[in-house]
Design goal:
The protein is about 35% helix and about 30% strand. By secondary structure, the protein is of the alpha/beta class. The protein is elongated.
Amino acid sequence: MVWNRIYTHIIAMAVVGLMALTTGGCVPSYKLNGSALDYTVYRTISVSEFPIRAALVYAPLQQTFENELLDYINRNTRLRVVDSASDLRIEGEITGYALTPQAVTEDAYASKTRLTITVRVKYIDEKNDKNNIDQSFSAYRDFDATLMLNDVQDDLCQQITKELVDLIFNATLGNW
């Protein structure tokens, strides 16, 4: 009886050891930045200006968006940003900047206002046309309707821009 228990224990330990040895080479690999680029193929990227083509214009938005996009690319890829011919290109325009009432109260007044920003992006992969994208991305933030847009506009635009850049990166360079 004791020998059976010892024998069973030895076999169980051997099986566990063999499993550890055979699965030891299968280690999952994750990229923390989400980038799915092959840096032996892609070395450069150009990012054009994103002019505002929306009916309502907030002038600082263009520079805020372009800076955030370039910073995000620099932080999360090893691509060199160039102004001339490149392996990858990102271009587009800010097509929407809209305010809409939200959360109407019982007295028919809006208690919240929504700021929505829409950006149209053309992503051109000079090495593989199948990766090209021409798509619009939108993001929004709600704010209390008692506040003046001028008081919250900078902060809201910064928050929305960060979300848009994340969406654009994931759809293009992140290759999700």
